């Protein structure tokens, strides 16, 4: 039988620990009773409800309800947010008609009698809230599970984040189409070599930092193991926290458990009408009664063909054509699709791939963050199979210009066949809006098989409408003889007519 402790006896210990953790100066011994009731935020978008001497919650039409563990000493209100994990000290003023804290001010709307404080289990997160919330980031999964089972949503969230971090760390690193560091960037480089390395890193900083910080090269989070998905789904069903269940739905969807994800979304939506989860929950709920297979994933073996539409998702409507080309309404260029790891990946010039999962009834599910919960239904049932795309050949950008820091060094490198110089020289001229002068550098880079060179050519055409640009791109493609040069891909996915019109408007 669990040991219980009187909330009155435990309260003083919890108060002292919380205030100490928040580095609050020492307070007088005397204490006041809790001022229970409902307090409205200044802008009216949220309310603070104090239910008892130990519990309350924050709520509002635009935020998930956050449960609070409370303690009062004089005018100080210690708060432990059980939903977010935050520990803060707030303050009563104006004869308990105002509560200030968390960068907000709440004013009393209606006072109420305090409800009894429920008994708390010895050693539980509810009893030792300050220690518990401070320990969340380093707590073991078994401990987090126990605290989550108590109804501490912050522990539930931390458990999922811990599992996701472990899954990312265990996932094999995929080969990245990134340039190899040049030899003059080694640890024991000379001062002159160090200067050359810094110049190269500066030239590539935007691209490399964009990939690392913005996650442009990461298509999907690593899927969680089946046992962990089972555990999280069960905890969502037990606790039904709005934010936690929404996060669990994402993990289940990413793991291919689409029906369970829909159920988790529905539990999240139940907590607050109008929450983020309600849109996809309602859209997906209409599918499962019609056909149990509507949310059953199957392995992709070939690209689909024809037009698909979805109520949710960035890509809609879209049309799959021959050679993996994809037309998307509102997107100026065509995209290119391929089959990889049982899913359909659609690449774009900047950013990670869009990802679609075929379902057993012939529809597609959006898996990436831009199209998550999208349900793509085929609109032209008579569409025949399309031809598969070729395997295009391209090379990563070489970092091969050690004299980049010198005046004219980039152009000199390009003239000597060092392709980093071509990239830097072309981009510098584009920055100066010298589009025509940049063309020779990008032509050389594109001809060598570096995608950025071909994209640079196309970007210049959008400003000049020089007919030589698409002609040159087609010639580079034709020279390959196989149609697999990266220039063939860029040429086929450009809307040359649209870019010409764009140039005319400038």
What does this structure look like?
This protein has helices spanning 7-21, 129-135, 141-149, 153-170, 191-214, 226-239, 242-254, 258-271, 278-285, 409-415, 419-431, 435-447, 451-464, 468-480, 486-493, 496-505, and strands spanning 4-5, 37-41, 47-50, 55-60, 63-73, 76-81, 87-93, 98-101, 104-111, 120-121, 306-309, 318-320, 325-328, 335-340, 343-347, 354-358, 364-366, 375-378. It is an alpha+beta fold. The longest helix is centred in the middle third of the chain and has 24 residues, at 191-214.
Summary keywords:
single chain, 506 residues, alpha+beta, 18 strands
Q: Work out the strand percent.
A: 15-25%
Please outline the major beta sheet.
8 strands, antiparallel, barrel
Low-pLDDT parts are: 1-31, 212-216
Radius of gyration computed on alpha carbons: 29 Å
Q: Give the % helix.
A: 25-40%
Number of helices: 16
**Taking all residues together, what is the mean pLDDT?**
86
